[in-house]
Every structure is written in structure tokens, then in C-alpha cells.
TrEMBL record:
<dbReference type="GO" id="GO:0003677">
    <property type="term" value="F:DNA binding"/>
</dbReference>
<dbReference type="InterPro" id="IPR009057">
    <property type="entry name" value="Homeodomain-like_sf"/>
</dbReference>
<dbReference type="GO" id="GO:0003700">
    <property type="term" value="F:DNA-binding transcription factor activity"/>
</dbReference>
<feature type="domain" description="HTH rpiR-type">
    <location>
        <begin position="1"/>
        <end position="77"/>
    </location>
</feature>
<protein>
    <recommendedName>
        <fullName>HTH rpiR-type domain-containing protein</fullName>
    </recommendedName>
</protein>
<dbReference type="InterPro" id="IPR000281">
    <property type="entry name" value="HTH_RpiR"/>
</dbReference>
<dbReference type="Pfam" id="PF01418">
    <property type="entry name" value="HTH_6"/>
</dbReference>
<dbReference type="InterPro" id="IPR036388">
    <property type="entry name" value="WH-like_DNA-bd_sf"/>
</dbReference>
<dbReference type="InterPro" id="IPR047640">
    <property type="entry name" value="RpiR-like"/>
</dbReference>
<dbReference type="GO" id="GO:0097367">
    <property type="term" value="F:carbohydrate derivative binding"/>
</dbReference>
Length: 231
């Protein structure tokens, strides 16, 4: 099982320190096989025991197995079977996700605001717009932080989707303010989130640093749309 899949499976147990470790490992995949546990613990200012507990939470026997998994991932060639498996994971994830409150909010508002600051994110946002406009939802795209900040001052009892396909943990400053009247949904890969969201849709994805694969996110929204109408 890939590290990202393990993170997805056990995300409820992860602490802020665990997310810091995951982010560090993700950014240093190529160098990691040559590094020791002590080196990583020193870089992160944590104990080796903390690093071992991180492995344990992900059902990894120890640091050696962790390095082996990451090394294999970095050298793996993306196959058709990987993509097929990923699509099944997305369908299962949305099917099992508790959408009761999300669908209640969507049906009550009929308006969706989507923040997508980036070319790839905007492509996903336009697909969401295409999907949900079939049910007469009014979709408003917010293509930059200025548009987001301006809209947040006016929204009341509305839905705000945040599309974030990078996993750097950085969010627009405007989101750090508490907006009680706005229902916020994050559509993203698994990552540490230091901003409050009402819904966290961490979509399983075939991970490669060289490109961002958007099909899993679009598929997730297609399944959400079908699930909404079957509810």
C-alpha cells in the first residue's frame, strides 16, 4: 500500500507532528533512502520514538520498511492498473463518505462558490460547474485570492468549495478568519489542514510529482452528483 493510501486510511489518528513528518518525507523522497532515522529526527526536532510511532500509525513495522516503501514509490512506473485501481478507490471513497450534511446544505442554498487559484485547479472548478449546473445550481468561480476575499465579505449561508491540488499546507489568508455563516468544503489530496473546514474531501490520487492528475477529482464530483440524486 502506498504512503498516500495509508495516510488516507489513518488520517483521523494523525497529529500535527505526523502531518509535518509526512510533508517532510514527501518533499525528500529521492534523498530519504540514504538518510538515517536520527538524521530525520534531528531535522524535524523530534525524537526517533515519535518517528517510529508515525510508522506504527500507518501500519508500517519500522523505519526500514518506511524507506523501502518510499523508494519503491519514487522508482515505480505508472501503469494502467494503477489508474484503474485509483478510480475504484475514488468511487468507494465517495460512496462511503457521509454526505448527509453536505447534501442538506447544497439543496438548501442552490449556490456554490468555488475558489480555484491556479490553472489546474480552475480546470477542475469548471468541470464541477458543468456537472452541478445540470441541477440548476448557481456556480460562481473565484479565480484568485482577491475574488475570494471580496466574496467572503458578502456570503451568508452559502457553500464555498476550495480546490487545492498541491499539498503544501498553505491557504489564502482570508480563510484563517472564522466565517460561521459559510459552509466550507476542501477538495484536495490528503494533507495537513490548519484552516477549519466543514467538510474535508481528501480524494485518493495516483501521485507523481511530475504532473497533477485531475481526473480523480472530476470523477469524485461526478459520483457526488449521482449520489445527491439517489439520496
Amino acid at each position: 500500500m502506498r504512503i498516500q493510501d495509508r495516510i488516507q486510511k489513518h488520517k483521523a489518528k494523525l497529529t500535527s507532528t505526523d502531518w509535518m513528518i509526512y510533508d517532510y518525507l514527501d518533499k525528500n523522497q529521492k534523498e530519504l533512502p540514504e538518510w538515517t532515522m536520527e538524521r530525520i529526527a534531528q531535522d524535524l526536532h523530534i525524537s526517533t520514538t515519535t518517528l517510529f510511532r508515525f510508522c506504527s500509525k500507518l501500519e508500517i513495522s519500522g523505519f526500514s520498511e518506511l524507506k523501502a516503501i518510499i523508494k519503491n514509490e519514487s522508482q515505480a512506473i505508472l501503469t494502467q492498473a494503477d489508474i484503474s485501481l485509483n478510480y475504484h478507490q475514488v468511487v468507494d471513497y465517495i460512496y462511503e463518505y457521509d454526505t448527509q450534511e453536505l447534501f442538506f446544505r447544497m439543496n438548501s442554498s442552490k449556490k456554490i462558490y468555488i475558489y480555484a487559484d491556479g490553472e489546474v485547479e480552475l480546470r477542475v472548478a469548471k468541470e464541477i460547474q458543468r456537472i452541478f449546473q445540470q441541477s440548476n445550481f448557481q456556480i460562481y468561480l473565484l479565480p484568485n485570492e482577491l475574488a475570494l476575499t471580496s466574496s467572503l465579505k458578502q456570503l451568508t449561508d452559502e457553500l464555498l468549495w476550495i480546490i487545492k491540488l498541491s499539498d503544501d499546507g498553505q491557504f489564502p489568508l482570508a480563510l484563517y478568519t472564522n466565517h460561521k455563516d459559510i459552509y466550507k468544503i476542501l477538495l484536495a489530496p490528503a494533507q495537513k489542514v490548519n484552516v477549519f473546514f466543514d467538510e474535508l474531501l481528501f480524494i485518493p490520487n495516483v501521485y507523481r510529482k511530475e504532473f497533477k492528475m485531475i481526473t480523480p477529482y472530476i470523477l469524485a464530483c461526478e459520483i457526488l452528483y449521482l449520489k445527491l440524486h439517489l439520496a
